[in-house]
User: Fold these one by one.
Assistant:
Number 1:
Amino acid sequence: MRILAEPLWRTYSLLIEDYETLKQYYSQYVPVKGTSGKYCIHSSLVYPRYKIKASFELYNQANPVHKKSIAKNESYADYVVMPCKEILNILEKAITSRTKDSEFLDQPVRVFRYMSTKDLHLLKVAVNHRNSDHFSKPLIDFSEFSASMEDLKERLTIDKTEFIKQLLGSDSASKRLAMETMTNYDTKRSLIALLYLFSGTSFRMHEYYTSTAFKAFRGKIGELTGCEPEYWSGMGFTRIYKTLVHNNVVKDITLTRSEYAFIREIMHKDCMDAAENSGVTLNLKPEDVILAFDESRIIPDEEVENEDAIRQKALLEDTPDTYLLVDDTA
């Protein structure tokens, strides 16, 4: 199986038989849910593998029987992770024609016209893997693979938001970087910290606000809180907490003990100010304030620190020779 270069500019083709084989092959990727073992992340995927390694370590702590790990060689992998959906999308763009190539003169082919460099590279990756000795390994689509790992994205907490706050208060390029950074965190587990950032500034007028990535991020915020991000933007945190209570979503939120203490201080001050404005003397200490969060969802700060330490360790170990093709069976 090989890709044929057509006379037209940036036009390539595959014989019909090869095209159908390729399409069927990449359509047969398996669901990642319920799988375990060794996963080979295909070299075509540009992704910080230390995050996957760290995610696996966190997963294995909770699932010591069905462990997951990265295989450095396809020969020893149980699954090969590839961009199957992207490849299938490229294959869908092909049209039926006949080749003018001298070797396959006038044979029916599927033609890809005006291919971008990225699409051509991915098509070559697809063909080369199908031609390799490891094509019999079950495939997993990378988009599903990454989405399935709860711990792949980091948890943002209020005490780690200072650098993002500084970016949001700077020029347009810095604000865009801050918004991009916000989308890279686990939205559900970072919700309190993200709403805290929303409360401190308004960035609705920034061009990145309507980008595809940020729209998806805004959609997740809306699903979790019952209100679109436009509603939260620039809002004081006291009102944010009261809205979460009013929308009956506060008990579904996970936060750290330090975040709980931070919100408790804010609400204590709110109560004291309201009492003073009404001419009432209120004998209330911050520790006497009980918030509506579910106590079982208030986690120790050490749990987040442990996750960060695992990621940091995985990053430091992620040297250039980490992914050499070696027998890592042991």
Number 2:
Amino acid sequence: MMLPAQDSSAGALPRAQADKAELIGRLVIAVSLAALLYALWTSRLEEAAGWTAKELRVLPRMSVFVLGALMALVLQGAHPGRLLLLGGGLLAAAAGAWWVQLGELWELHAAAPQGAALAVLAPEEVSGSSATRGIMFQAGPVLQLLRFEASIFSAVLLGTGLGRWVQSSPQLIAVLFCAIAGDVWLNAFHVPETIGPDNPLCLLRLPWPPALGHLGLSPAFTDLLVLSATLEAARHLGFHMLSVVLGVVSGYCAGSFLGLDPWPSWPALSMVMFTSGVLVGCWPDLKCKARDAGKALLVAALLMAVLLAITSLQRILAPLPQPRPAPARQLFVAATVSFRSQVSS
């Protein structure tokens, strides 16, 4: 008696639909986590800017880093394809760059003295269309949240794609050493802070939390990129995930703590301590010979030399620009504040 052949495609279709539904659900969870963190901290940033204890000043930066770790773990659990990781990461990066241009007007407004523009100038007193006034006075936090979400998603997706290419412990060591070189270059030369908003390198620093008062700098884009790559590599290399997660979080926390002012301040130690935490967390499972570690160190040194050469050449050919004069709108705000203060006195 012949049994009817089972159609394998009948079971493959529901499985594919279930995988897509799981991925969408995990994306919603990741978006919600980022929005929740933004909402919780935004109302307390002014208070946090006045904190002087280092243990408190490091909390916003560490909150964003832990958020990146959680988002990476949530999204990597769905095992998205490489094409989706690459396309989604590039799309999120492009969206973040576009929102930088839209949010520049709001950032200029936020850079003014606290309460000056909002208290002195009502929305109807600002020249321009109603759409411009809406962006200035209402959509600023929304644009900042969108930029924040886009930056984190781009780093997590691209970092996960990078982690898929790490197939051995020596390759992971090479990625970590190159991350150290890039972090030293990024912080020693203050690359994102010394360029204009029209330069793509400004995206190397997350747009939130802002550098207010005594708060430390927000994490770099490359920090979350390497974090996602490390977690994805540790997953398929069979490392103990809890040990790796605890190692990267504790190491990055120590580096962030050492990077705070006042003296001594070593802002370039974040990825050094991060790498130390990774090595401690996965040391029992790490299989790397001294020769492989030497090769990884050589690759990182070459990368550091290239970055230094490019930066030096750029400083020679195009010196750092002088501070730009205040825009006409800010001058108008300052003049109005001065005039009203004189009248009230």
Number 3:
Amino acid sequence: MKSFWYSFWSPRAALGTWECHAPWWESGFDLRSPLSGEQEERVNIVGTIQAENEREVWRFVRACFGRVPEGFQARFCEERPDGWEPFTARFPRAGWMHWPIQADAALALRARPPVRS
């Protein structure tokens, strides 16, 4: 099992459906104007999970939403070295964070089961 560091953009309003028990943090935000012309706030999320490969990481991230929101945009997914710890002064450990944790174990902690699409 490998550790991965990932990042994505999501509409802030969609974070109400995001349920993830592996470490993650809000890393930034921006305002964007979709075709409707109304501004929408997007939030940048960074997080970590243990998985076999990048495909499994993105399956996990999408499942944490239940339903992937319109406007979801994957940014990057990087494999980290053995023994890597995600916690730093910028990204501190919170009491609810489970680490190390594999993707399937993290999904099993969800109160709402993921929607299979």
Number 4:
Amino acid sequence: MGKGDHVFNNVVAKLTKAFDEGLSEYFGATRRKLRGAKGSDLAVNSVMREDWMRRNMPRTWEALDHFKRHPELVTLRERLQTSEYQGGDVNNDTYSKRSEEFRQAVASFFWKLARHESHVDGSALLSDVRSVRRTFLHMTAAAEDPGAAQRLLDEYKDKPRERAKLEADISLVRGSLEWAWGRCDYLFRMAVQEHLPL
């Protein structure tokens, strides 16, 4: 058997990686001293970056950490994979395109955040938050690899109890992916809100 063919691509990793890369670029672009740390140091050191965010942007850090630890989006979703790799790119063209659009929207958000250091009205970045939320929603909608769910269910066609549990798990993950766009919106709104007084 080859590597498992995931039913759902890893949207959690896409979000957390895009956020961390954007935050790194933000610290690299800002010229201010940021509460006990230099932006240049935070830009290159992920451990320092996470520690700084935990202390200075606690609600943003908690929202991001929630994505990393959410049981349906992380543990359960990772268990849902078929036993055989069917060939081809499991990150299909649509998902790859949507993922790149999301990454670009996050990068744009942080680029603008770094250039609005003196603004006092967080609404100036609301359109950028909406863009991140919209592209995240599109990415999650394309997160399921075509045919993988059916291949997985077919493996249990002679085991009705296990198949019913599997269907319930798939429904939980799909529901969580639909719910996650609201948490994504909250994450980036909180980043703006907690950024203003820094």
